[in-house]
Design goal:
The complex is a heterodimer of chains A (335) and B (336).
Chain A (H helix, E strand, L loop, with lengths): L1 H28 L14 H11 L5 H25 L19 H36 L4 H15 L2 H15 L16 H38 L2 H8 L4 H30 L2 H6 L5 H10 L3 H29 L7
Helix pairs in contact in A: 1-12, 4-5, 4-7, 4-9, 5-7, 6-7, 7-9, 8-9, 9-12, 11-12
Chain B lengths: L8 E12 L2 E13 L4 E5 L6 H7 L9 E10 L2 E2 L5 H7 L4 E4 L3 H4 L6 H12 L4 H14 L5 H4 L9 H13 L5 E5 L7 H18 L2 E6 L2 H7 L2 E6 L2 E7 H6 L4 H8 L40 H5 L5 E2 L10 E2 L11
Parallel strand pairs in B: 3-8, 3-9, 6-7, 7-8
Antiparallel strand pairs in B: 1-2, 1-4, 4-5, 9-10, 10-12, 11-12
The chains are: A mainly alpha (335), B alpha/beta (336).
């Protein structure tokens, strides 16, 4: 297992380098200039000097290599410096946003908590409601519960989140006025009242995303359970006189979880990247909003860095999924 | 009861129906049989004749719905187990009646160790502690001829060969010292040398432990080798029942005769093409009112289409204890 993990991690290096290059070139090819938001009254010479100051007019190869150096050497050095109090970085140039002239990693550090609390808890809630629904639907296949569940999941996974999000806002914020429609990032939880406020403002975005995640995962859970419920070993367990609870929640569930756990693990990176729409709808000031803002302003370093981090997460959780697969299924051995 | 021994298992008039949308399948029709202590009853018949369904329905192993046991009694040690509550019946399964299934490759749960799976019924039915159950599981593995039992308990099913897995299945079925072992085609999925080993093992275990066995099979050769009595099933009913020597020496039902003719001879001249029974087994859409074998029978006459033959004794012993047959046709001694 250890050799497998090491091998996979080593293999990830060329993969990620290639991904970073592709992202860099794609972002570079995209139309738009970092100067597009600068007023037209600014004379061309000044624009030229601004471009120079940001290094935006260097050849693409130079910019790419510089970015690589900053991302893989300078930024880790700054992290170590701030943790250990050393001075490895020595004031070297960090990855700076063209938009705000602020280090991109500082932007990430500011935005990440919002994304994790809203989108992360939505994913968690989604998984927690999806599993029991999937299990029960499969166990009582074609019961009214299953029929209803299948219908709701079908609707839930075919209706896009920007639609359900707006629908939730119209019903619960505009008409009923129960929950705020805008997520207030400045709210700090200090006492009971502000905690209640935080829960209230999380309610709608979490509901929307949790529903979306739950529908997909419960479908996987249901079909995996159904497949396993028909297996011979289930009959064996019943013939041994095991109770239905043991048969379903031990024998069948353990087998059914194998594919589902990998689906859940592979879905975790989407918490960071895929929630762009949710953050837009509810004005959550998270990573997704930061990415959209950067794209609009042709802020290449920010777009490049954020996208690359999403890629790293995807590669990492792929590995996690593989490792979990090996742990859950004794037939799979990586050596 | 003749022969002095009280039957461990006595099934009377068992009737099982599958109710699917708009249709009923009468899979088991008034099946009666008994099993004496230590006896091995062979149950033969082609696929769909109701062998497995009979055995599974008497112990509540069929999913309900669609399966429904309409009538009958299943007396285990004198008590009707069909009247038990689901929980009580559950403690009969695995404890007093052990089951071994056909395909050992898929019958074991792939994600639990063999030890866990053998210990499960011990912990649940006998309330053993973990340590006790582990000791007993190791004993059982040794009993079924798996060497190095302590180490093997920690292995997963995929680390065993097919024959070894079937041994594990047998160990699991025997865990709680059942009075009855039901073996549903336990050797069909194994290759011939392994088949022979498993048959030898069952013979040996039967002598050691003295449980009664129901052995379901397609293979008449196997039945001839190990059974004390044979029950032939067709279309969800018992068509002939006799002690093994009597059945092979003096088969009376046309279906039994056809089955025996369909067995290829290993020695002597090759007798041309393999003998087959023409036609298909019947669709059991309703309770039979005529002989189910009628359409494939070479001896069928008017009465066979009007009346489903009841089992009748061919000797002076009571029904189900000597030789009996469910057929209207009476072969002349010259025919037999």
């Amino acid at each position: 297992m250890l050799t497998f993990v090491i091998r996979r991690l080593l293999l990830a290096i060329p993969t990620l380098l290639l991904i970073s290059l592709v992202i860099f070139l794609l972002v570079d090819l995209a139309p738009g200039s970092p100067m597009s938001e600068i007023p037209r009254t600014v004379p061309p010479e000044v624009r030229e000097r601004m471009m120079q100051a940001m290094g935006a007019n260097e050849p693409v190869v130079v910019r790419y290599l510089l970015w690589l150096r900053q991302f893989f050497l300078v930024e880790p050095a700054y992290v170590i410096d701030s943790l250990m109090g050393t001075n490895l970085a020595g004031g070297a140039q960090r990855v700076l946003s063209w938009q705000s002239r602020m280090p991109v990693f500082d932007i990430i550090a500011q935005r990440l908590p919002q994304t994790l609390t809203v989108i992360g808890s939505a994913y968690l809630v989604g998984v927690l409601i999806a599993l029991p629904i999937g299990i029960y639907s499969a166990y009582r296949q074609y019961s009214w519960f299953d029929q209803l569940g299948t219908f709701v999941t079908m609707v839930g996974s075919s209706v896009p989140t920007f639609f359900t999000g707006v629908l939730l806002i119209i019903v619960f914020s505009v008409n009923l006025g129960w929950f705020p429609s805008i997520y207030d990032t400045t709210l700090e939880v200090t006492d009971w009242a502000s905690f209640k406020m935080q829960i209230m403002q999380m309610a709608l975005p979490v509901t929307m995303l949790a529903l979306h995640n739950a529908t997909e995962i419960s479908r996987y859970m249901r079909s995996s359970m159904l497949e396993n419920l028909g297996q011979d070993y289930v009959r064996t367990a019943r013939a041994k006189g095991m109770s239905e609870r043991v048969v379903v929640l031990k024998h069948v569930l353990r087998n059914s979880l194998i594919p589902v756990v990998t689906v859940i693990a592979l879905g975790i990176p989407t918490i960071f990247g895929g929630a762009i729409i949710a953050e837009q709808v509810f004005k959550v000031n998270g990573l997704g909003t930061a990415l959209i803002g950067a794209i609009n302003a042709s802020d290449l370093p920010t777009v490049q860095t954020l996208t690359f981090i999403f890629a790293v997460l995807i590669v990492f959780f792929n590995l996690v999924a593989d490792i979990l697969y090996g742990i859950l299924d004794p037939r799979i051995r990586y050596d | 009861m003749p022969d002095g021994a009280q039957a461990v298992l006595d099934v009377r008039g068992l009737e099982t129906v599958f109710c699917t949308r708009g249709a009923e399948i009468h899979a088991v029709n008034k099946v009666s049989f008994h099993l004496k202590p230590g006896e091995l009853l062979g149950v033969v018949g082609e696929s769909g004749s109701g062998k497995s369904v009979t055995m599974m329905s008497l112990i509540g192993l069929l999913p309900s719905p669609p399966a429904e046991v309409r009538s009958g009694e299943v007396l285990l040690g004198g008590k009707d187990i069909l009247k038990l509550s689901p929980t009580e019946l559950r403690h009969v399964r695995g404890a007093r009646v052990g089951f071994v299934f056909q395909d050992p490759m898929t019958s074991l749960n792939p994600v639990f160790t063999v030890g866990d799976q053998i210990m499960e019924p011990l912990r649940s039915h006998m309330r053993m502690s973990k340590a006790e159950a582990r000791r007993r599981a190791a004993e059982l593995l040794t009993l079924v001829g798996i060497p190095d039992a302590d180490k093997r308990l920690k292995n997963y099913p995929h680390q065993f060969s097919g024959g070894m897995r079937q041994r594990v299945m047998i160990a699991m079925a025997l865990a709680c010292d059942p009075e009855v072992l039901i073996a549903d085609e336990p050797t069909t999925a194994l290759d011939v040398t392994i088949q022979a080993q498993i048959i030898e093992l069952v013979k040996e275990l039967r002598q050691k432990l003295g449980m009664a066995i129901v052995w379901i099979t397609h293979d008449l050769g196997v039945v001839a080798g190990i059974a004390d009595r044979v029950m032939v099933m067709y279309g969800g009913q018992v068509v002939e029942q006799a002690p093994v020597k009597e059945l092979f020496g003096n088969p009376r039902h046309p279906y039994t005769r056809a089955l025996l003719k369909a067995v290829p001879a290993l020695s002597g001249e090759r007798a041309g093409r393999l003998q087959v029974i023409e036609g298909q087994p019947p669709m059991l859409g309703s309770a039979p009112t005529s002989c189910p074998f009628r359409s494939r029978c070479t001896h069928a006459f008017d009465r066979c289409g009007k009346e489903n033959p009841a089992r009748r004794a061919l000797d002076d012993k009571p029904l189900d204890h000597g030789h009996d047959v469910a057929c209207h046709w009476n072969p002349e001694p010259a025919d037999a």
